[in-house]
Specification:
The complex is a heterodimer of chains A (about 170) and B (about 180). Chain A is of the alpha/beta class. Chain A contains three helices and seven strands; from the N terminus they run αββαββββαβ. Classes of the chains: A alpha/beta (about 170), B alpha/beta (about 180). At the A-B interface, loops of A face loops of B.
């Protein structure tokens, strides 16, 4: 079967139901749709193990922070690739910042281990079931998650930068 | 002296008393002369400035002319720590450990904008200048500095080494400086 966005989406909706697969669109020709926390693990397992699809390569995953979206402040984005068919797709899961818990994918892909640690490091997203959820890129004693937009990007210990020189 | 030795450059003799068959000067000056003309660098190169230093080590700029012939990639025989490139906060303790493992007398050169002040990377993850971790003798500006500037920084260290008193490292000021960095 030739993998096109329409028939892949049809297959996924048939498997998981319309209420769990929403907002499908094609930015840059890569199909993007949303799902929820209950579905994501099963969905990625299904894409990996399905004989027809063979979407069995986790290209990347990362967190996103949208502070202005009520109860959808955090997002986890997954990009998958079928090496067999050269077909890519993108999955997004939105969830509130007050409850930043996601199911882990480490039992499906070993690559998810470090990527989930990175998402935890920068966004504070907790992956339930992760074997070793500790910081990976920042210093161990950092007390916040720097990519959340309420924290300043600049180093706060500089004394030689006067705001007037920077048009602020 | 045969003609082939005409190219050899001699280090200038320090001040002293010359007479028939003898030359007298102070111990400090002789040791300073020896130290200044055999500074072995420890290149701590993390980014682009490290590439400039490689050019400095190459045949065209030839850091060997200054007696810095051998880059010591171990702190054991190194005299001068050249930190070149962005030092992330996670790398800070490593720089400090390398500095602590060097033996006295030791000098530190911060090469380029990143090592001196964090450079353009005013970010939560980057150390805003290595002088927050180790004491620095010479700062080389530039982003990245040309090899000539790195050589100039090395010559500034040579000046320091030449004119340093033998007792400087035992002075209370120096001990207090190390104390302020929590270096034993």
């Amino acid at each position: 079967m030739e993998l096109t966005n329409e028939n892949v989406l049809g297959k996924i909706i048939e498997q998981f139901g319309e209420e769990n697969i929403t907002d499908a669109m094609n930015p840059d020709g890569i199909m993007t749709f949303q799902t929820n926390r209950q579905t994501i693990h099963e969905l990625i397992k299904y894409l990996r193990d399905d004989k027809e699809l063979q979407i069995s390569f986790l290209t990347t995953m990362c967190g996103v922070h949208y502070p202005e979206q009520k109860d959808k402040e955090l997002c986890m984005m997954y990009q998958l690739h079928s090496l067999r068919h050269n077909y890519r797709l993108r999955i997004k899961v939105y969830f509130p910042i007050s409850d930043p818990v996601m199911p882990t994918l480490t039992d499906l892909y070993a690559a998810a281990n470090w990527m989930e640690r990175e998402a935890y490091d920068f966004y504070g997203i907790v992956f339930a079931g992760h074997p070793n959820l500790i910081r990976i890129l920042n210093v161990e004693d950092m007390e916040y998650h720097p990519m959340l937009k309420q924290y300043p990007l600049e180093d706060q210990t500089r004394e030689d930068k006067v705001n007037t020189f920077f048009g602020r | 002296m045969s003609d082939s030795n005409k190219d050899i450059k001699m280090a200038e003799a320090p001040e002293g008393y010359t007479g028939a068959g003898f030359f007298a000067t102070s111990f400090e000056k002789v040791i300073g002369l020896a130290r200044a003309n055999s500074l072995w660098p420890l290149p701590f190169a993390t980014s682009c400035c490290g590439i400039e230093f490689m050019a400095t080590m190459g045949a065209h700029y030839d850091i060997s002319r200054f007696g810095s012939e051998r880059p010591s990639f171990s702190p054991r025989q190194a005299d001068i720590l050249l930190v070149m490139g962005t030092i992330a906060k996670k790398m800070g303790p490593v720089v400090k450990q390398v500095y602590e493992q060097m033996s006295e007398p030791r000098w530190v050169v911060a090469v380029g904008a990143c090592a001196t002040s964090g450079g353009i990377f005013d970010t939560y993850s980057v150390l805003q200048g290595i002088d927050r971790v180790v004491p620095v003798d010479v700062y080389v500006p530039g982003c990245p500095p040309r090899p000539e500037q790195i050589l100039d920084g090395l010559m500034r260290v040579q000046d320091l080494a030449k004119n340093e008193s033998l007792r400087r490292r035992n002075s209370p000021e120096y001990q207090a400086l190390l104390e302020s960095y929590n270096i034993k």
